[in-house]
Amino acid sequence: MREACSYSLDLLVTDNSFLLINALMDQCIFSQIRHVASLLHL
Question: So where are the chain's domains?
Answer without folding.
Answer: 2-41
